[in-house]
């Protein structure tokens, strides 16, 4: 039997050309795998047929939207995952679920190699290849765009020569990657970091400067997972989709940032993630209400490292797996309701309630009913400040002895 390569297939020019290119260069049979993570666009059956028309011996399509939302977006929400404190890991979260389906297809079809259409300048090559190595250490990888110097001009020429059913003349000025968690836009005039993005860049969000009535939404969480919107039960996917629509209509979730890529370069990225930003904002506030102070302080460090691991393509790494257990345990008490006001490009918490709340009105109030014993504070401050006071006295003493010499 001929060697087989399982290719991560999007239906676009590069991966369509990769099918024939891999077959010509290696003599292998190519099996295309397309994974729906809520990116919208073309019907999966259309994409499947295009793969076959481009020379794939088989083509599989997987509806992974619920899996992606539950098993990848929800852990990111529980970890408040924001790379560089801003980016909610749009592309980074989708790659490991695609890798899972690639490796499953490789084992099913007896393939020895998986392929992707990533360039050598981006993060995705790392996510695909390191993820594949974690799930199937014996698997090989082929990356035609990177390793065979497949420029766009070469890809167009190949598609025209082979008569591939690809519209090579339709060229967006941007490179776009999107899924249900958000949308990433780069290249074109955005590569000049002085240029402001125009409204044509955005699709998931409306212009936040346009006057609209605010939208108040009530989100119910259980153990850090949204389970209801305005009192109506939702799945993780439904929660994200509904908040994408409602927060997006208010212009929530637009980000324009210069980002530190894993490969060492800085890249200008424009993101829109209305549902993700609204959910993370609500989740962070519910943690403020329910998570004990020292655990909350340490979790903020864990959250940052968790996000970096996911961004850096180490989703399946031992450290990520260990941090998952911590994040899951820390979220065990994060249950309750958060009221958000979506308006003018912002998601603002206006109310919070939880049976697991650590907030005590009687301790916090300055009015009648205050149960905080202020007489205890004087001794607490004395003991708390003792190390600082002793160190300051020591420094003064040493300074004086040096002056005497």
UniProtKB/TrEMBL annotation:
Residues 174-390 form the Arginosuccinate synthase C-terminal domain. L-citrulline binds at residues 87, 123, 127, 175, 259, 271. This is Argininosuccinate synthase. InterPro entries: Arginosuc_syn_C, Arginosuc_syn_N, Arginosuc_synth, Arginosuc_synth_CS, Arginosuc_synth_type_1_subfam, AS_cat/multimer_dom_body, Rossmann-like_a/b/a_fold. ATP binds at residues 8-16, 117. Belongs to the argininosuccinate synthase family. Type 1 subfamily. L-aspartate binds at residues 119, 123-124. It catalyses: L-citrulline + L-aspartate + ATP = 2-(N(omega)-L-arginino)succinate + AMP + diphosphate + H(+). Residues 4-165 form the Arginosuccinate synthase-like N-terminal domain. It is an enzyme of class 6 (ligase). Its EC number is 6.3.4.5.
């Amino acid at each position: 039997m001929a060697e087989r390569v399982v290719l991560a297939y999007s239906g676009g020019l590069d991966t369509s050309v990769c099918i024939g290119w891999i077959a010509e260069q290696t003599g292998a049979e190519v099996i295309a795998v397309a994974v729906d993570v809520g990116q919208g666009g073309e019907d999966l059956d259309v994409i499947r047929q295009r793969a076959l028309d481009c020379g794939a011996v088989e083509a599989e399509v997987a509806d992974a939207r619920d899996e992606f939302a539950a098993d990848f977006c929800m852990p990111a929400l529980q970890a408040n995952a924001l790379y560089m404190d801003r980016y909610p890991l749009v592309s980074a979260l989708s790659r490991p679920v695609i890798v899972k389906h690639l490796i499953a297809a490789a084992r099913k079809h007896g393939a020895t190699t998986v392929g992707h259409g990533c360039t050598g300048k981006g993060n995705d090559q790392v996510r695909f290849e390191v993820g594949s190595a974690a799930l199937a250490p014996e698997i090989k990888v082929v990356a035609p765009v990177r390793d065979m110097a497949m420029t766009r001009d070469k890809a167009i020429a190949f598609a025209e020569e082979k008569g591939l059913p690809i519209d090579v003349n339709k060229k967006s000025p941007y490179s776009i990657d999107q899924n249900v968690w958000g949308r990433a836009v780069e290249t074109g005039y955005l590569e000049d970091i002085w240029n402001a993005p125009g409204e044509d860049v955005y699709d998931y969000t409306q212009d936040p400067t346009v006057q609209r009535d605010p939208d108040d939404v009530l989100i119910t969480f259980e153990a850090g997972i949204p389970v209801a919107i305005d009192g109506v039960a939702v799945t993780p996917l439904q929660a994200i989709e509904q908040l994408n629509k409602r927060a997006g209509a208010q212009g929530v979730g637009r980000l324009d940032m210069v980002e530190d890529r894993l490969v060492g370069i800085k890249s200008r990225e424009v993101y829109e993630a209305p549902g993700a930003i609204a959910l993370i904002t609500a989740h962070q506030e519910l943690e403020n209400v329910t998570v004990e102070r020292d655990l909350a302080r340490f979790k903020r460090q864990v959250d940052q490292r968790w996000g970096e691991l996911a961004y850096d393509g180490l989703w399946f790494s031992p450290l990520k797996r260990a941090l998952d257990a911590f994040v899951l345990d820390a979220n065990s008490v994060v249950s309750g309701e958060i009221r958000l006001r979506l308006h003018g490009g912002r998601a603002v918490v206006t109310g919070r309630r939880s049976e697991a709340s650590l907030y005590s009105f009687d301790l916090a109030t300055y009015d009648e009913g205050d149960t905080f014993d202020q007489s205890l504070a004087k001794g607490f401050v004395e003991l708390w400040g003792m190390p600082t006071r002793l160190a300051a006295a020591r420094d003064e003493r040493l300074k004086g002895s040096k002056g005497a010499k």
